[in-house]
């Protein structure tokens, strides 16, 4: 069929005309032509399908969990209480949902993935706090660096220079480590309450459910179904749970949050705080490319080959994340942002483009933030661990294993996993990309096709910059931190 010059609405066909639902969803992906930085409208440029509810629910659970984790870390670092955590999570959910999820990714640029949470930065937040850094200074620097990278197309260039073996190894490492972490967290929660048998039961039931969904080709249902099973099994076996967060609205006045005696109780940042925040901002932006790479790969693996127009644009996503970082923190939030994995991965598996699910997710985030009580369910340990396990980490692991089939790719993947284990995934990605692009490992023919800039300058620069940033904040084993030590 000739699609040139025809709009999405002209090419759309009802699902009844297709043999299977999957065929209909594939067709939708191939005919969409979303506008970048212009108004996209339901019906004219995209449609809502009931499959959009899956990534919307998954993303809402995931972001509530991650926001709660990051605000808890900030509160511990600066000696702030539970009221600060709850109100700050609500600020982040409302600001990101309305401005950047619904308006940006839903209506004005469906090629930009949602700006979510930068999970790998959460363990660093206590170090950021004691290093004399400032959340607002960190946000401004991170946003500025992100805008520079997106304007120069640096993000997409790094993604293109990451070979299949390197990407596969990175996904395997992230998936395996994340899966182990969530299983251990669930078991630790149960053991602390002397109900270890409940964790075993929750995990066993969900293993069976996930395997069954994979068998019938419905893995995109994993997060809602497995989360419900986690709640039902845990409560039925006597796990303690109570609602604590009452409905309400947060204070959205920046003056309240950045005063010296209210909100963060830090005041506005000075030059010293910007200097202390600098290496952390560089490190956060350095981590963006492998993070974005993993999310785009999921689209490429699950979408039909002709669906190029709906793949997330890495540079546009960086632009959205950069503005969201600055504006969200100016409004009082404390999130460190990145591409929204708990949305994108389920959306890709469900064969849905970004806009419809993004709008539904934004609405759900507003409901959760204002309602309060749903936040308690989302961050309850059985729901939190199972949702992240089946919705993010197991799919990452499976995708990485699927990518690594060739001997050359296996070699690069193995080195990436090895280096990531020695230091962290950013180090593993940067080092292995440099080695892979120079033909020292992996596909030597691919290396020969690259120019000097793509072989040496860009991969070498990424490795040097990220390594220096990691050394500065104490992330290299055996090397004391250069700041905050």
UniProtKB/TrEMBL annotation:
Superkingdom of origin organism: Bacteria
Entry keyword set: Membrane, Transmembrane, Transmembrane helix
Range of residues in the leader sequence: none
Transmembrane segments: 56-81, 93-112, 124-149, 161-183, 195-213, 220-241, 274-293, 354-373, 379-401, 413-435, 455-476
InterPro entries: DUF3360
Keyword Membrane attributed: yes
Name of this chain's protein: DUF3360 domain-containing protein
Lineage of producing organism: Bacteria, Pseudomonadati, Pseudomonadota, Gammaproteobacteria, Oceanospirillales
């Amino acid at each position: 069929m000739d699609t040139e010059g025809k709009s999405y609405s002209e090419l759309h066909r009802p699902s009844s005309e297709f043999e299977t639902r999957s065929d209909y969803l594939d067709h939708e992906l191939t005919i969409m032509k979303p506008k970048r930085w212009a108004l996209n409208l339901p019906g004219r440029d995209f449609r809502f399908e009931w499959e959009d509810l899956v990534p919307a629910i998954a993303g809402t659970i995931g972001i509530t969990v991650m926001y709660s984790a990051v605000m808890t870390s900030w509160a511990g670092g600066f000696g702030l209480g539970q009221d600060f955590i709850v109100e700050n999570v609500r600020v982040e959910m409302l600001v990101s949902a309305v401005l950047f999820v619904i308006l940006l990714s839903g209506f004005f640029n469906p090629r930009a993935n949602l700006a979510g949470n930068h999970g790998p930065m959460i363990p660093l937040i206590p170090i950021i706090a004691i290093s004399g850094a400032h959340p607002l200074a960190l946000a401004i620097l991170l946003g500025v660096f992100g805008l520079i990278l997106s304007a120069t197309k640096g993000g997409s260039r790094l993604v293109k220079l990451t070979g299949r073996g390197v990407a596969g190894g990175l996904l395997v490492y992230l998936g395996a480590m994340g899966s182990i972490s969530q299983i251990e967290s669930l078991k630790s929660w149960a053991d602390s309450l002397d109900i270890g048998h409940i964790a075993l039961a929750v995990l066993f039931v969900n293993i069976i459910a996930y395997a069954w969904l994979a068998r019938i080709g419905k893995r995109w249902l994993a997060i809602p179904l497995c989360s419900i099973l986690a709640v039902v099994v845990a409560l039925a076996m006597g796990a303690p749970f109570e609602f604590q967060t009452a409905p309400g609205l947060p204070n959205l006045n920046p003056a309240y949050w950045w005063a010296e005696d209210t909100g963060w109780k830090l005041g506005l940042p000075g030059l010293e705080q910007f200097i202390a925040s600098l290496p952390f901002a560089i490190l956060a932006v350095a981590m963006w490319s492998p993070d974005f790479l993993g999310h785009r790969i999921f689209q490429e693996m699950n979408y039909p080959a002709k669906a190029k127009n709906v793949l997330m644009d890495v540079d546009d996503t960086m632009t959205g994340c950069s503005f969201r970082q600055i504006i969200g923190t100016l409004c009082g939030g404390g999130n460190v942002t990145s591409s929204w994995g708990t949305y994108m991965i389920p959306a890709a598996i469900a064969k849905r483009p970004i806009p419809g699910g993004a709008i539904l997710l934004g609405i759900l985030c507003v409901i959760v933030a204002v309602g309060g009580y749903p936040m308690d369910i989302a961050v309850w340990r059985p729901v939190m661990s199972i949702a992240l396990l089946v919705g993010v980490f197991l799919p990452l692991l499976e995708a990485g294993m699927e990518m690594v089939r060739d001997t050359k790719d296996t070699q690069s993947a193995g080195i990436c996993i090895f280096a990531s284990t020695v230091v962290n995934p950013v180090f593993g990605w940067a080092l292995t990309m440099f080695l892979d692009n120079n033909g020292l490992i992996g596909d030597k023919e691919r290396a020969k096709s690259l120019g000097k800039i793509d072989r040496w300058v860009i991969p070498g620069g990424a490795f040097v910059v990220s390594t220096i940033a990691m050394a500065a904040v104490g992330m290299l084993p055996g090397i004391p931190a250069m700041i905050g030590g």
